[in-house]
Structures are given as C-alpha cells and as structure tokens.
Amino acid sequence: MGSLCPLLFRVNRLEPELITPGKPTPLETKLLSDIDDQVGIRFHYSVIMTYKNNPSMKGNDAVMVIKEALSRALVFYYPLAGRLREGPNRKLMVDCNGEGVLFIEANADVTLEQLGDTILPPCPHLEEFLFNPPGSDGILGCPLLLFQVTRLTCGGFIFGLRVNHTICDAVGLAQFLNAIGEMAKGADSPSIPPVWARELLNARDPPTITLPHYEYEQLLDSEGSFIIDQSDMAQRSFYFGPQQITALRKHLPPHLSTCSSFELITACIWKCRTLSLRLNPKDTVRLSCAINARGKPMDDLCLPLGFYGNAMGGPTVVSTVELVCASPLGYGVELVRKNKAQMGKEYMQSLADFFVIRGRPPPPMAWNVFVVSDNRHTGLGEFDVGWGRPVFAGLARAVLMLSFYVRENNQEEEFGTLVPICLPRMCLDRFEQELKRMILEHVEDVSK
C-alpha cells in the first residue's frame, strides 16, 4: 500500500476489565499439545476487524453485545479464561481458574470512511485500536486473550483482538469467535461444540523423528551473510488482484499455468524478497508454509470437528540464493508445491516427536528464513455479532521473517490479496522494484 497522509483522531479508552465465564466452570489443569507449546509460537498475534454501521441494529451497543456474548461463550471455552503455567521440561499447561480475558471499551472520534486504507496492514493505528495494558502480554500467568471494541462516530466499530498463539491458531480462533457471534444472536450453545483433545498432537511413545525438519535446523552458511541492520525496519503491503495474478501467470510454463494463487504469490514474493536481501549466492534460503492439518486431505490425523488448538505445520523447502534468484518463476512454484506435498499425518507426528526429542528448540532467526501463512480462508471474516460480516478482517502486521495473506475486502466474493512485508527499509525498496519488474508493464502499480 502507498504512503498515506497522517490521520489525527482521539481514542478514549475505559480501564481494562476481566470478562469471566458467565457460569461456574471446571477448575482443572489441561496440558497443551506438543505442537501447541513449541517455542516458535510462544508469542501473541493481533487481529483487527472493521464493521460498518447497520441501521437494523439501532439501539444496540456493539460493546455490550460482544461483552455479554463473550462471557457466555467462555462457559464452553473455559480454558481460554485460564492462565498458562510451565511444568517440567518446559511443558505448557492451562490452569483453568476462570480468571477471565481482558476487555477494553473505547470510543474514537473518527469514521470508518476517514480511516480508509489506513486500517489495512500494516495498520499504523494498531496501538490505538488494540491497547497493550502493561504486563498483560506475557506467555505465562497472563490473560490468553485481549479484546478492544472501539465505537466510531459513524455508528460502525473496530474490533481488535490479541491472542496467545500457544492456545489456538487462526482457525481455532475463528471457531471461538463464531461461538461468540452465535451467542450474540441468542443461541444457548455453540453449533460446533469445542473439543480439547490436545493429546492427539502429542509425541509418540517412543518419539521417533522420521522426516527432516529444516524449519528448525541451524544450517551453516557464509559468516555474516544474514546479519542485517534491524534498526531501520519498515513494513508495506503489496496488492495482488486479478491483473497482477494474470500477469504473473504469463511467467509460467504450460504445466504450471493452473497453479493456485497461493503457490503463485508465494513463489513471487520469495524470489523478490531473496533478490532484495542481496545474500551470498552460494548460501541457502528456506521457505516454510504454514499449512492447516484439519479436514481433507488430512482426515487420517483424526482431528475432531471442534478442535481449536494449534493444528498447523510448517513444512520447509531449501534452495540456494543463486537458484531462487536466477531461475524462472516456475522454479519457485514447483518448490511451493513440493512444500505443500510434505504435509500429512506423518509430518505432524514427526514434528511433535522432534520437539520432544530436541527440547523444543527455537526456530532460526535469520534473513534467509521466510515463513508465509495464508489467512484468507481461516473463517475470521465470518465473525458476525449482528452488524454483518466485517469489511476487513485479518492480522494487523507482518513480523520479521513472517508474512501472511489477507483479503483486501472481506465483503466481496472476488477479492484481492494483501501481503504485508517486513524488511529493512533499503531492502523493502528493492523488493518493490523487483516486484514491479516481475509484473507486466500494463499493470501500473502493484503497491496500491
């Protein structure tokens, strides 16, 4: 997205409060799975959603509607109202104590129209619409979720949400939000009952690593190749609509011309990113794709409907800088397909075994690592508490080596894809130049 003029407005927030389950819930301890408690997801992720005014909801207050529905939904999802503890060997577990989730009520003297594209990632107003109460964002002993609902002067509202990633992925979160939406519309219970079943993603006995897990291996490369100054970081979102997708497909050989938009966009941004970093041509680069392990063709994993834990894996492919940069776009598409093909029951079981055997190592923090997550079909955009579907729904910002895909407009059947990229400013400028070179000249500007 292009640079935007600063927008000045004021947000008045009430003091954060704890929303607890509306009825007594079990006091117990629940273990997270060996996929949940990996070090690589011990962080909070932020989601932002925007809602228009709905005349049919006149007289209803979105803050009160969501707050009440949240309390009722927590009766069924009571572990989310607990706190994380760490046991022997750093094993995470939830103390289901009913302490509650954080909730902030707010008002802003601005309209949705005035906010315009500034609400899209990387949202410069995130701190206004999702305040971080001091001491609330730890992994252990802190609320697992933070909500902020901000009324706008146009009658619409902004719904901000922060989630401890170890407790659920985006698909699991969407399931919980759907339960809140159903409660807001008068349901007595969720249409899809929540299922804990975290033991299904635990290591085998005995654990046995059966596949390579390059996503966690510390590969040896040229000394200093990936040490880049992080003091001048920048973020920008890049738009891929029908014109851009059509233009990129013209780079592919016939046998790849029907590849998915995910495969095409991922190959494109991986190549442009690698080119922009100017790494040693002989060194390795890695691409990990976060892939959902639920449903077909993953039915043999037997995750039940209603499972809301982390069920994502990140299969990884490895290449050299030289090959990624010099090869046609189809080379990257083939590697993305190879990446996706690795996902299966054996991969997830081997990954859980890997964490237990290796002591849950952290993922490599280096610029030659790139992780992508497709959030266009997680279900987050279905969250409706009576005001209809959100205009925009998605993660708010990229994080260093992680980018994600979101719908530019959640209310249209045909939508463009936004991809936030986080890089040192000089590299980000080069990324944009490389991307423009790749898109045919008749597409005037891909960074809308």
TrEMBL record:
Coiled-coil intervals, chain numbering: none
GO molecular function, one term: transferase activity
Top-level taxonomy: Eukaryota, Viridiplantae, Streptophyta, Embryophyta, Tracheophyta
Protein name as catalogued: Methanol O-anthraniloyltransferase-like
Domain of life of the source: Eukaryota
Family note: Belongs to the plant acyltransferase family.
GO biological-process terms attached to the record: fruit ripening, climacteric
Keywords: Transferase
InterPro entries linked: CAT-like_dom_sf, Plant_acyltransferase
Alphabetical list of Pfam families matching this protein: Transferase
